Recover the amino acids of this structure.
């Protein structure tokens, strides 16, 4: 186990190192320069600006400097935001993203689990078909379509909640969280339904019934707990979906979060910020997958870690 | 009581003696079904999948002929006809799709006001382009990207996974180490980075989507290859002198075909989503090309005043995604022998 964790940690760092390297050189080959907006500058001024941001040196030197700073946790200086450090920039924007992500995750999985259980316990009834249909909708409809429709009807037609921005307390977070929650909701509903149906047909459930346990007890105490374990495996895809979703949903609702930052940095060719955000997203997702693999091995010893999913 | 009595009264000549034909005793009444016939029967019983196939075929046909249906070209701009709401002949009398839109908070028949005689079934955009034509042109592009990306994923994934699993040993070791590193890189990040360094366009999107898309397929194919290559029928074939190529094409691939099809079926909606996603955040297709993503993006910008511009493409993409997912589900249930009842 310790050996496995050690190996995985080494892999995580290799992956991050590769992402950093590849994205650094991809950034360099991008069409358009980060200082394109300084085109009015003359040669001397341009040289001063380039020196200030360290882009006057040869590429390999820039790379070495970037990697050295990265090892210390320094993501460099933003080109677009008047010399602000990328670390500060991201730190100031992480809170809304975290709040939305957490709310979407908690709300989505809870409701999803309930729907999935309902569907499994009342198999082949109206409830089953209803929640299965709902889950298919949640999986199929892209988050940005759902987000724009929510914004159109609930915010701009019925004026129930703010159209966007992050200045109205919890009210601002309701619609974006809902839009983000659709994915986790649908995924966990489907997953729990399949697992519950499988568990409900197993011998120990028959035994519990024979013993005289009532339906509620069987559903929650016996079936649900065993159906819940495999849900951990979808945590990885869920987190990836949330990050993807946050890019568009934050843009739609004008939330000052990491996703919105990423998209706007791409638009202005702000290399340092794009790289910083890329690394932050990657680190987050790699870490989640790592945790999932470890947790899975701990919870279910039947899983052979050596063959664990990467 | 009375009935039983009647039976006893049946006349002798009503009965006929039969001879037992030993040839017929072993006859099988129902023709035995091949795996694919069996799967087809199961798929046909799945109502959701059948409806989805019909809807999908309808959309495919519309995507092909839709742009030519109403005589408006997709890139023809006519500023005099800009921002017209939908108007469909026949249905207009029912009070919907009658060309009535909002103008400064009042309901006005914009067609009458602008003296437009033509019908724009799904309305026009800010440049006066016909949205019905553009919608199906966009669907065409989105589907094209999705199909090509899924095909590339399938070819690379099957080849990579097959080679890795079949040859095993050192080859497998090296190939799997590479996959282990690649799989750690979030798809989204790779796709966005790739798309940024390439010239925007259909090819760039396809390459960006396929660059990591094949990994899932390769892992599944590798696992399947490992499972089958150690089974007796492969050993038997090898003993009879079959070459690797024949074993792969005759024995391994036919067995894996089901799972490959299922996986490809789920790659398609994924590719549709990624294309739309990229176009929506503004780094996908560039104007004047249209895809479902760019149409949704255009519609989103003006949804306050011309909600129909968002609604139609949003509906089409949602229905397409639902149909593909339902067909994928249906195929999985039909082809996966574990679910066999």
């Amino acid at each position: 186990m310790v050996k496995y964790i050690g190996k995985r940690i080494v892999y995580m760092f290799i992956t991050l190192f590769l992402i950093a390297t590849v994205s650094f050189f991809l950034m360099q080959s991008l069409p358009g320069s980060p200082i394109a907006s300084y085109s009015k500058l003359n040669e001397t001024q341009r040289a001063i600006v380039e020196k200030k941001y360290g882009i006057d040196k040869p590429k390999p030197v820039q790379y070495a400097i970037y990697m050295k700073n990265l090892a210390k946790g320094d993501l460099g200086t933003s080109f677009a935001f008047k010399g602000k450090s990328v670390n500060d920039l991201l730190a100031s924007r992480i809170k809304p993203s975290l709040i939305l992500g957490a709310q979407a995750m908690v709300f989505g999985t809870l409701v999803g689990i309930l729907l999935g259980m309902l569907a499994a316990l009342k198999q082949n009834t109206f409830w089953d078909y209803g929640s299965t249909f709902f889950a298919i909708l949640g999986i199929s409809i892209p988050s940005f379509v759902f987000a724009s429709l929510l914004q159109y009807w609930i915010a701009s037609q019925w004026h129930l909640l703010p159209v966007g921005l992050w200045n109205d307390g919890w009210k601002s977070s309701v619609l974006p969280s809902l839009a983000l929650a659709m994915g986790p909701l649908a995924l966990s509903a489907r997953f729990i339904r399949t697992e519950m149906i499988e568990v409900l047909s197993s011998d120990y459930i028959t035994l519990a019934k024979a013993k005289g346990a009532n339906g509620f007890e069987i559903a929650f105490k016996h079936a649900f707990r065993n159906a819940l374990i495999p849900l951990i495996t979808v945590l990885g895809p869920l987190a990836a979906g949330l990050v993807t979703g946050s890019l568009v949903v934050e843009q739609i609702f004008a939330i000052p979060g990491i996703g919105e930052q990423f998209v706007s940095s791409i638009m202005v060719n702000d290399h340092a910020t794009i790289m910083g955000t890329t690394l932050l997203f990657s680190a987050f997702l790699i870490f989640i997958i790592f945790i999932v693999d470890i947790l899975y091995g701990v919870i279910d010893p039947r899983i052979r870690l050596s063959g664990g999913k990467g | 009581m009375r009935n039983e009595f009647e039976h006893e009264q049946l006349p002798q000549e009503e009965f006929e003696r039969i001879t037992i034909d030993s040839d017929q005793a072993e006859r099988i009444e129902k023709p035995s079904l091949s795996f694919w016939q069996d799967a087809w029967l199961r798929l046909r019983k799945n109502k959701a999948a059948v409806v989805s196939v019909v809807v999908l075929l309808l959309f495919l046909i519309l995507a092909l002929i839709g742009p030519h249906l109403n005589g408006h070209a997709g890139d023809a701009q006519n500023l005099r006809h800009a921002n017209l709401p939908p108007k469909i002949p026949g249905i207009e009398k029912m009070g919907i799709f009658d060309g009535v839109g909002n103008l400064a908070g009042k309901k006005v028949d914009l067609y009458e006001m602008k003296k437009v005689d033509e019908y724009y079934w799904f309305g026009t955009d800010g440049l006066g382009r016909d949205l019905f034509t553009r919608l199906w042109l966009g669907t065409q592009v989105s589907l094209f990207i999705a199909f090509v990306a899924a095909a590339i994923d399938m070819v690379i994934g099957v080849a990579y996974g097959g080679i890795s699993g079949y040859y095993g040993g050192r080859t497998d070791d090296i190939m799997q180490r590479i996959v282990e590193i690649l799989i750690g890189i979030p798809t989204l990040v790779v796709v966005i980075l790739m798309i940024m360094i390439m010239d925007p366009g259909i090819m760039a999107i396809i390459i960006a989507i396929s660059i990591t898309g094949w990994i899932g397929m390769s892992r599944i194919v590798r696992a399947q290859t490992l499972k089958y290559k150690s089974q007796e029928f492969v050993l038997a074939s090898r003993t009879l002198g079959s070459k690797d190529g024949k074993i792969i094409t005759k024995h391994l691939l036919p067995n894996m075909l089901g799972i490959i099809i299922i996986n490809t079926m789920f790659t398609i909606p994924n590719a549709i989503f990624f294309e739309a996603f990229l176009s929506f955040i503004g780094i996908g297709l560039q104007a004047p090309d249209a895809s479902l993503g760019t149409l949704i993006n255009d519609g989103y910008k003006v949804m306050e005043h011309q909600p129909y511009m968002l609604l139609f493409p949003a509906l089409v993409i949602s229905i397409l995604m639902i149909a593909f997912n339902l067909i994928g589900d249906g195929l999985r249930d039909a082809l996966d022998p574990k679910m066999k009842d």
Observations:
- The domain at 101-263 of chain A is CATH 1.10.3720.10 (MetI-like fold).
- Chain A has twelve helices and no strands.
- The CA atoms of residues 55 and 293 of chain A lie 40 Å apart.
- The first helix of chain A runs from residue 2 to 28.
